[in-house]
């Protein structure tokens, strides 16, 4: 049974001596993050790396075990003497709810404290819908997901991947909803989720989370440098340097879609000139004028043209659609080439449903990047499609959630209580929410009985 | 073709036409003489027989031998053991329906590590990725099936009624999708209804769960069960209690078709097309083995079946004449 060590520490402390929480917390934070980073380690390894001394490490590991934060039940391989006891994060002690909020889809999942995704679900959802509809569907799906992974483990946090830049890099949990999309202006999404689930909420941009997903579970595994490019209505890039996501001064990196470009006597941002809105517009025009036989037939049968239809038609050999995608790929490739020459990544990963559907954008981008880059930059460069789809965002949100829960600045204030739900800043925030009346609309109740 | 759902990784569906085999594909496959194993959740259902029939026939056309057909009896442990044994047998490809999520994920991932091509049916364990661990997932549009069931049952439910939902208490992509779609459609289109749900972990538990649901809500006006075999258990309970509560379910099994033709207890069936799903799975496997790129998710739309359409739907889905009892019940034969 995990204990709150602040109570026992207070009783044991003598007059005038520093509180154990004050002295132990920094070393607990250091050791716990070493254990997290190593996945699995031993006491001997921790003594060597932390330089804390055997007695201190033994004492702190006992405290972490009493708090229920680590597990020492497994033995490693013996190398002559007794088999060493393995030290691991108690990843199943708590759960993290994750969600991806894209322009046209909603994804939800449940992760453990190591950031491993345990379950996921995706469905169509128009992000232009009123925010109360989003809040209701999101809450219903998150509650359903948590029920699906029923376990005594409590919910420790909610990590959201959102379709826009989330300002700030402090890593603090959110106490109000950032206006990531215009429709959220003044809508208390974060407050509603905190009130409904009783756990801290974090947000990261979808490009950030997808980049982290690719880095930890996709094409970027084990690499130290990667460039991730998401192509949709907006075009964004995620940058991995020295094995970590680069977030810049304000969390506003990789906004390549806003760059002005000029091509074929037209000027505009990369989003407008090469994003899925352009593909849709040109596809519709090709259908209406009959230039694309495939799309014209689709239109005649009462079908509505989407950007994905244009991509599928291109893949099935429609020349006009292939040209539309080639144009998009070349324009994006020219901008990505600049980044490639600047960053010298090992791999460039392309993502987004249009890229997923066909090879033409990939081929056009490869041509543009290889043609405009220094030979040393492209010598071992791979340009590939993501295999993770929207799972990248969920996996990345799970990783981000785990990192933020155990970020030293946040962890030091809850580690002695054994749960982030007891973090003094968070308990104060919840008290404040509880003392103010909930903002309509009311949210659905827990699942059993009335989903 | 309208597909309502998204794939297990948020993929947009590709139609089965994307894996059409050309004569040269069949010839190339015949020249290679592939060996394929099929690992199913059960071999005790009409759905499994039809799926298998679609696969085996298509493989026969391509000179590909089906060397193993394994019944896992819904047991994750049995499936892990079967996949471990197949590792030693080294077939060229395995078509598998993962019966669980986390418990069977690693066993499936090992096939890819061993160079065995994997095509999944109906379920993709979390963490397995298309292109890396498996080629393609082939399934029905399970989200669409949940919507069809909700639409069909809604017509039988009075204003303000209570409706029961009997889900599968396992983390399984197909049944999760049906359950979520059913509740979503009802909330959006019939906000007057209240939904009361429970889940069964084993098919045999479906009867007890139905009894418990009825004990808690004796005035249930309708019931959705996420597939037909457990729905038959629920129907037995309703019959025993002399209740005429309409049931919606998924898959047009023979007994369910008879119930539908007789005007109860089944009111609407959201049917998959297992034969065509089997054909698509086999075609995908052949193209994967020949080194072609296949879509991450191929989905086939569902068919809404009512008493009026039960005979034609039965023929369309099962590729054989409807049973005599169905034909009699709808008055086509004396």
Descriptive overview:
The complex is a heterodimer of chains A (451) and B (334). Chain A is an alpha/beta fold. Chain A has three domains: 85 residues, Winged helix-like DNA-binding domain superfamily/Winged helix DNA-binding domain (Arc Repressor Mutant, subunit A); 158 residues, ATPase, nucleotide binding domain (Nucleotidyltransferase, domain 5, 2-Layer Sandwich); 167 residues, 2-Layer Sandwich (Nucleotidyltransferase, domain 5). Chain A has 18 helices and 15 strands. In chain A, the strands form four sheets. In chain A, strands 6-5-4-7-8 form a five-stranded mixed β-sheet, sandwiched between helices. In chain A, strands 11-10-9-14-15 form a five-stranded mixed β-sheet, sandwiched between helices. In chain A, helix 5 packs parallel to helix 6 and helix 11 packs across helix 12. The longest helix of chain A has 25 residues. The C terminus of chain A is likely disordered. Chain B folds into two domains: 154 residues, Response regulator (Rossmann fold), CATH 3.40.50; 156 residues, Response regulator (Rossmann fold, 3-Layer(aba) Sandwich), CATH 3.40.50.2300. Chain B is built from twelve helices and twelve strands. A six-stranded parallel β-sheet of chain B has the order 2-1-3-4-5-11, sandwiched between helices. The longest helix of chain B has 17 residues. At the A-B interface, strand 5, strand 6, helix 5 and helix 13 of A face helix 6 and strand 7 of B.
Descriptive labels:
heterodimer, A: alpha/beta, Arc Repressor Mutant, subunit A, Nucleotidyltransferase, domain 5, five-stranded mixed sheet, 18 helices, 15 strands, globular, B: 334 residues, Rossmann fold, 2 domains
List strands and helices in order, with pairings.
The complex is a heterodimer of chains A (451) and B (334).
Chain A: H1 5-12, H2 20-38, E1 40-42, H3 43-50, H4 54-66, E2 70-71, E3 86-89, E4 94-101, E5 105-111, E6 117-124, H5 131-148, E7 154-162, H6 189-197, E8 201-205, H7 206-217, E9 226-231, E10 235-241, E11 244-245, E12 260-263, E13 266-269, H8 270-274, H9 276-288, H10 293-300, H11 307-315, H12 319-343, E14 347-351, H13 353-357, H14 360-372, H15 375-378, E15 382-385, H16 391-405, H17 408-411, H18 424-434
Parallel strand pairs in A: 4-7, 7-8, 9-14, 14-15
Antiparallel strand pairs in A: 1-3, 2-3, 4-5, 5-6, 9-10, 10-11, 12-13
Chain B: H1 23-32, E1 35-40, H2 46-61, E2 65-71, H3 76-89, E3 93-96, H4 102-113, E4 117-121, E5 136-140, H5 142-154, E6 162-168, H6 173-189, E7 194-200, H7 205-216, E8 220-225, H8 228-240, E9 247-250, H9 254-261, E10 266-271, H10 274-289, E11 297-300, E12 303-305, H11 310-318, H12 324-329
Parallel strand pairs in B: 1-2, 1-3, 3-4, 4-5, 5-11, 6-7, 6-8, 8-9, 9-10
Antiparallel strand pairs in B: 10-12
Helix pairs in contact in B: 2-10, 3-4, 5-6, 7-8
